[in-house]
């Protein structure tokens, strides 16, 4: 069983990944007998560009919309330079 994280999915289960999520999610989903996908947003079927789909819905058995959370690692943090 594979549990993967996608960015956007349509109602048919076609998934789009963002950034580093494209690394192992697709091979894990295709190799597993059961694939559960957590996505941030579900859109109507046909609204995703077919060329942008990273994982066809044939591999996704279940899909859930995850709760919103802070993506702290995606924010750039900098500090002020010390006075010379």
From TrEMBL:
<dbReference type="Pfam" id="PF01144">
    <property type="entry name" value="CoA_trans"/>
</dbReference>
<protein>
    <submittedName>
        <fullName>Succinyl-CoA:3-ketoacid-coenzyme A transferase subunit A</fullName>
        <ecNumber>2.8.3.5</ecNumber>
    </submittedName>
</protein>
<dbReference type="InterPro" id="IPR037171">
    <property type="entry name" value="NagB/RpiA_transferase-like"/>
</dbReference>
<dbReference type="InterPro" id="IPR004165">
    <property type="entry name" value="CoA_trans_fam_I"/>
</dbReference>
<dbReference type="GO" id="GO:0008260">
    <property type="term" value="F:succinyl-CoA:3-oxo-acid CoA-transferase activity"/>
</dbReference>
<keyword id="KW-0808">Transferase</keyword>
């Amino acid at each position: 069983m594979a549990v993967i994280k996608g960015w956007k999915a349509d109602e048919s289960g076609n998934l789009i990944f963002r950034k580093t999520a494209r690394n192992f999610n697709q091979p894990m989903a295709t190799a597993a007998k059961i694939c559960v996908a957590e996505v941030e947003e579900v859109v109507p079927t046909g609204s995703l560009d077919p060329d942008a789909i990273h994982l066809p819905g044939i591999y996704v058995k279940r899909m859930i919309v995850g709760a919103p959370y802070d993506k702290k690692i995606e924010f750039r943090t900098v500090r002020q330079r010390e006075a010379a």
